[in-house]
Amino acid sequence: MEINTISQVSPIQTSGVAKTQTPAQVTKEFGSFLSDAINQVNQAQVESAMLGDMFAAGKIDSIDQVMVAGVKATNMLQMTLQVRNKVIESYQEIMRMSI
């Protein structure tokens, strides 16, 4: 059995590694993340209301679509409220810390 030698080792590529960000950049990204999440919750609420109206008007026959959209919107809203509560709780905890 013959073993071939390694002729050359390639250097590690760092193009995929994120560079250090400033606090302002991180805050902006976090703010846009929260804004996008709230927009998605709003869109789910609007879609649920629209499907409910369409079902009441007789334009769609499947109650399944209406129920799934309603449960999805409710779950997204509940998750958003829980995240908000945890953020407020964390902020209050930080404010209670002594320096």
TrEMBL record:
Its main location: other. Pfam families: FliE (PF02049). InterPro entries: FliE (IPR001624). Signal peptide: none annotated. The keyword Magnesium does not apply. Keywords: Bacterial flagellum, Cell projection, Cilium, Flagellum. Residues 1-21 are annotated as: Disordered. It is found in: Bacterial flagellum basal body. Belongs to the FliE family. This is Flagellar hook-basal body complex protein FliE. It comes from Brevibacillus choshinensis.
